[in-house]
């Protein structure tokens, strides 16, 4: 190859390099411009989204206290509730409300008829839905303590509504009255409450809590519905576990009621639950005194040997397994223990006069603790 040809080839290579360099510069400029545009676009979208969400979390109209009727049907999901609130003009965006509830881990919303206004904040709306509180002046409160039986609850209701306890108690046991409630709460009030041996169908189903009321003499159905709303909301928290463990509401509330009646303030309810489950698994009778007292229909400080002879399906000294139904209402701690018992080998427990609960794996160990803490007192 001649010198002229070599120089021509070198020049061609140099020209191509210059072209590539020029193209590379153009590409870098285009990429840079696109990156800036994307950055500004993403930044704008982020800022816009931030301000939109911030606005959506604020009251619809801070100065407007006009009451708006809002009906939350039984069984409504969070998405359904959010749509109802948006269509009622109480919140700005159902999706933002739904994600706020999810991120805050809020739950236990109660069905009912509410009076809300556009000036309410999201936390105020959530609190109203959790407590069943409407925007009216509270007339009175009714407190149903844990561990109360249906007859005692009837007395509390009667006192607050200027009624006769016997009348309230009779209505709480009326089949037609209960059937009406079952249409509203089919998942909670199942056919199990009408089992032949169940003494009182609503026993254990009226959740212990403090309830506000906004009329002087609300109808009994309204009072009971508020309590069943709460029961329904609490049980909904454990729906997945109940399905996994083949728990019906009736079975869960029955076990929880035994734990509630046996527990002291200092008691480890999950360990008491383990004793009951271990006894069931080994074929032992539960032998829990509160069931005997429930069978007798009276409260006593001490169960005598003669009391244990009562012929009743509730007598867990004579019958294995759970009694036919709950023997009292149970709080969240007892329900939690019933569905999440501690894993132990305990078969016995003993409550001392100081409120401590002592657990044992064998009868000999149990009798020794009984002699130390009970017999010698």
Automatic annotation (TrEMBL):
Functions as a peptidoglycan terminase that cleaves nascent peptidoglycan strands endolytically to terminate their elongation. This is Endolytic murein transglycosylase. It is a single-pass membrane protein. The gene is mltG. Keywords: Cell membrane, Cell wall biogenesis/degradation, Lyase, Membrane, Transmembrane, Transmembrane helix. The lineage of its organism: Bacteria, Bacillati, Bacillota, Bacilli, Bacillales. One of its GO terms (molecular function) is lytic endotransglycosylase activity. Its EC number is 4.2.2.29. InterPro entries: MLTG-like. It catalyses: a peptidoglycan chain = a peptidoglycan chain with N-acetyl-1,6-anhydromuramyl-[peptide] at the reducing end + a peptidoglycan chain with N-acetylglucosamine at the non-reducing end. The chain crosses the membrane at residues 30-53. The keyword Metal-binding does not apply. It is found in: Cell membrane. Its main location: membrane. One of its GO terms (cellular component) is plasma membrane. The keyword S-adenosyl-L-methionine does not apply.
């Amino acid at each position: 190859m001649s010198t002229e040809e070599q120089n021509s080839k070198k020049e061609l290579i140099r020209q191509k390099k210059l072209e590539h360099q020029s193209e590379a510069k153009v590409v870098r400029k285009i990429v840079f411009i696109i990156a800036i545009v994307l950055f500004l676009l993403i930044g704008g979208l982020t800022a816009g989204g931030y301000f939109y969400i911030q606005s959506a979390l604020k009251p619809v109209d801070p100065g407007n206290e006009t009451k708006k009727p809002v009906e939350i049907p039984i069984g409504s999901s969070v998405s359904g509730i959010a749509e109802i609130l948006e269509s009622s003009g109480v919140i700005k965006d159902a999706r933002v409300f739904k994600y706020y509830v999810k991120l805050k881990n809020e739950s236990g919303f109660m069905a009912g008829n509410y009076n809300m206004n556009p000036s309410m904040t999201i936390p105020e709306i959530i609190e109203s839905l959790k407590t069943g509180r409407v925007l009216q002046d509270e007339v009175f409160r009714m407190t149903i303590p844990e561990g109360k039986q249906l007859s005692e609850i009837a007395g509390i209701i009667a006192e607050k509504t200027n009624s006769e306890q016997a009348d309230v108690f009779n209505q709480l046991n009326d089949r037609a009255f209960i059937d009406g409630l079952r249409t509203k709460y089919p998942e909670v009030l199942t056919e199990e409450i009408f089992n032949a041996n169940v003494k009182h169908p609503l026993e254990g189903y009226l959740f212990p809590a403090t309830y506000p009321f906004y009329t002087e003499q609300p109808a009994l159905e309204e009072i009971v519905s508020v309590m069943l709303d709460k029961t329904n909301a609490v049980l909904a928290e454990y729906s997945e576990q109940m399905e996994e463990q083949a728990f019906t509401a009736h079975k869960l509330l029955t076990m929880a009621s035994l734990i509630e009646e046996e527990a002291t303030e200092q008691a480890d309810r999950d360990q008491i639950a383990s004793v009951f489950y271990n006894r069931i698994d080994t074929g032992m009778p539960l032998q829990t005194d509160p069931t005997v007292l429930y069978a007798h229909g009276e409260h006593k400080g001490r169960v005598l040997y003669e009391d244990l002879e009562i012929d009743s399906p509730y007598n867990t000294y004579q019958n294995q397994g759970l009694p036919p139904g709950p023997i009292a209402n149970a709080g969240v701690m007892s329900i939690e223990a019933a569905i999440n018992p501690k894993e132990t080998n305990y078969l016995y427990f003993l409550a001392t006069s100081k409120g401590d609960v002592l657990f044992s794996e064998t009868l000999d160990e149990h009798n020794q603790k009984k002699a130390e803490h009970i017999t010698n007192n």
